[in-house]
Amino acid sequence: MPDPFRHYEQAPVLDLPADPPAPQTPTFQILAGHTANPLTNDAAQFLSSLLFHSASISATKTVPSTGTRYALRVNPSSGNLHPTEFHFAAKGLANWPDGLYHYRASSHMAEQRQSGGDPVTELLNLAPAPWFRSSPLVFVLTSIAWREAWKYRDRAYRYCLHDTGHAWAALALAARALGAEAFAFAHFPDQQASRILGVDDEWPMLLIALKGPGIPTADRPPSPKHWNGGQPNPLSTETIPYPAIDEVHQATTLPAISTIAQPTPATSNEGPIPLAPLATSDATFEHTVRSRRSALDFRGGSETISFEMFSTLLDFTTRPFAADFEGDLFDLDPARYITLYLYAHRIDDLDRGVYRFCPITRTLQRKRLGDQRLMAAGLSLSQDLAGNSCVTFSMIADMERALRDHGDRGYRYVHFEAGNIGQRLYLASEALGFRSTGIGAFYDDSVHRYLDLDGEHHQVVYHFACGHAITDPRL
Ligand SMILES: Cc1cc2nc3c(=O)[nH]c(=O)nc-3n(C[C@H](O)[C@H](O)[C@H](O)COP(=O)(O)O)c2cc1C
């Protein structure tokens, strides 16, 4: 297993203050799109809180047989392997030097890979969009495919993309809880981004620009660029090549800066079951993100979730994404590539069955009636949790439209969107008092057959289960 922690040795490290300000805004307000008030006028505190609530270690577990302890983080990850690395470029922050940084998650510090210069503008110039030009802070999420591939082989590429989507939502929501907005750029030339970051085995996946009153800034003159770089730690003694992963990554790269196509809107003629009014929750953002955990399994039996809780989960998935591949930031009805199908097992006032959710009309259309527990588990590589949950989702991508809009690059975008939706479902479940688990392992063709999809035009990209978790004895 490759090391799940990346370090750039010899790069100077800057402390991110311990016990940073904790966002007490209710989780539901953040999921609903509300931007909280600023919490600090010190950028070191801001950065520390932002990363503490989106990417840091939040728990440890013990392997019963060996007694070995391992770390769990705020952001979930397939197999807890964490392919995603967080880099950021800063300019004109109060009490924080300009430059380019890598987040050292193992010790909650920032490695200064470049001091001075203007990597913020260099990165924003890669994405020719008018949004967020004045941003003082740009994150780059990179992916190390080998961390997933040693275990999941060719399928690992998809997990890397989901993981990026989860990390994106984790960062964007934490930013909002600290008084800043985020906008994600996915349409940038890969190699140029790699050059700016000085990375080799990490693939840049998303640029995320932040701005807003919550980010403490200060007027100061630019400083000269000094490259510190640092030596990336070797992640394992050997690396096994997975040519199919390299090929699909290559097929989805962009060689040069290009304008992103405006997505074509999705159409829908959905039928008739409307969502209920939303459930309430007092859980604070800080509490929700720091205590979020994946369920290892769900209790099954007769415990249900209310139709209001279920409606709330669905409602939060419909909120705008703020990304270049999703249309305009202020577009309240953005073009979506993902449609949620769901296997309703234990939801009050909803018959067991398969449903399709239309985010535009906020209604459910029933596709099949009857008990879906064995089928949902069977489709999810015989994982019991998909049948023991209260509801399990199949996220279906309009692959044909994504590829028409964006070429092969669109393959990445549908997975980013699925991961982002998954992260919202994680936080909404946690705030409602139950739990979730992302499920990357499922039988693609069988799902297509069962849901009556053509498999070319529409493809399943992610499964997700929500319900009452069994207690994890290892925590
Ligand atoms: C993209 C993705 C795919 C996942 N697939 C599965 C899965 O198929 N089965 C499962 O039990 N858990 C799955 N998980 C949950 C991870 O195992 C879990 O996030 C990881 O162990 C870390 O635990 P935590 O979420 O409690 O931090 C997945 C998570 C993600 C983000």
Overview of the structural elements:
- The protein folds into two domains: 8-251, NADH Oxidase (3-Layer(aba) Sandwich); 282-467, NADH Oxidase, CATH 3.40.109.
- Strand 3 and strand 4 form a beta hairpin.
- The strands form four sheets. Strands 2, 5, 6, 7, 8, 9, 10 and 11 form an eight-stranded antiparallel beta sheet that branches. A seven-stranded antiparallel beta sheet has the order 13-16-15-14-17-19-18, sandwiched between helices. Strands 1-12 form a two-stranded antiparallel ribbon.
- It contains 14 helices and 19 strands.
- The protein has 475 residues and is of the alpha+beta class.
- Bound molecules: flavin mononucleotide (FMN).
- Flavin mononucleotide binds at residues 72-73, 76-80, 159, 162-163, 166, 293-294, 383, 385, 437-441.
- The site of flavin mononucleotide has 20 residues, from strand 4, helix 5 and strand 18.
Q: What hetero molecules are in the model? A: flavin mononucleotide
CATH topology of the largest domain: the name is: NADH Oxidase
Count of discrete domains:
2
Number of strands: 19
The top-level CATH class of the largest domain is Alpha Beta
Helix content: 25-40%
Low-confidence regions: none
Q: Cα-atom Rg, whole angstroms?
A: 21 Å
CATH superfamily of the largest domain: NADH Oxidase
Indicate the proportion of strand residues.
Answer: 15-25%
Which structural class do you get from the secondary structure elements? alpha+beta
Q: State the end-to-end CA separation.
A: 22 Å
Mass-distribution shape? globular
Number of helices: 14
Question: What summary fits the major beta sheet?
Answer: 8 strands, antiparallel
Which second-level CATH architecture of the largest domain applies? 3-Layer(aba) Sandwich
Q: pLDDT average, as an integer? A: 95
